[in-house]
TrEMBL record:
Domain HTH luxR-type: 4-69
Keyword Transcription: yes
Name by which UniProt lists this protein: Helix-turn-helix transcriptional regulator
Keyword Protease tagged: no
One Pfam family per UniProt: GerE
Length: 71
């Protein structure tokens, strides 16, 4: 789990798994199937991750995690 300076979790294992699948170039439909979720839930979770990281696009979240060696 990645934490902020005050020790709060930023990304948990579920978030990282989601970002790994997106980093592999899989479409939302496939990501949803692999995670056993609906496409809407995947989109909502991606948006939540982006909001937590302060980025505007999923690819930016992937890059953020990759630069920190999380993916």
């Amino acid at each position: 789990m990645t934490t902020t300076r005050v020790g709060r979790p930023v990304l948990d294992e579920e978030d990282l798994r989601l970002l790994r699948l997106l980093a592999a170039g899989l479409p939302v439909e496939t990501v949803a199937r692999r995670l056993g979720l609906s496409e809407r839930t995947v989109r909502r979770r991606v948006r939540a991750v982006c909001d937590r990281l302060g980025v505007t696009a999923p690819i930016q979240a992937v890059v953020w995690a990759a630069r920190r060696g999380l993916l």
